[in-house]
Amino acid sequence: PSLSLQWQAYQCPSALRVHLRDVFIELQGRTKAELENLFIIQCFQKTEHSMTGFYSEQEEEREVKANSFVDWVKPWLTRMNEENEWADGIDPLTASPILGVGGGSFYVDSEFGLHLLGFNIQDVGCCKIVIHDEWQANSFPSSFFALGEREQVQKVMEEVGECM
Fold first, then answer.
1. pTM exceeding 0.85
2. What is the enclosing helix (H) or strand (E) of 123?
3. Rounded to an integer, what distance in angstroms lies between the CA atom of residue 88 and that of residue 109?
4. How far apart are CA 7 and CA 45, in angstroms?
5. Containing H/E element for 107?
6. C-alpha angle with apex 83: 80 to 89, nearest 5 degrees?
7. What angle separates helix 56-82 from helix 150-162, to the nearest 10 degrees?
8. Which end of the chain is least crowded, N or C, by CB within 10 Å?
9. CA atoms of 155 and 48, how far apart (whole Å)
10. Are the CB atoms for 97 and 89 separated by under 8 Å?
């Protein structure tokens, strides 16, 4: 299915790399030097509703956006893993790995990585949300990660982008 989203690849900050070892078992055996080639691909989908509350409309939209992201990202993750590198994503509904076995910790966009990347995080009482530059609170963030050379990650992402 077609999915409209914005994405950007960032080199993972060192503080995030430390946390991700606890999220993804596959990263636990990697050296510090290998993890320097770890990238976070941050995705955003525009939402109809503001994500500042927990009303039924917002919950339904969160679920639809999360499922759309997981369905879209699985082929990319498979492709990246076939290129002899590692990749996995976070299921936005469970904060757990999509493909691999969880390492005991969870990854929540608004709690960990995005503030390290300079995104605006807003505490709305019940939770924290990510404020998108253009869409503000009308956005749904999701993340996946890739270990590899920047050029290879970018190449695969551009090929996947052509399929969207």
1. yes
2. strand 120-123
3. 15
4. 9
5. none
6. 20
7. 120
8. N
9. 31
10. yes
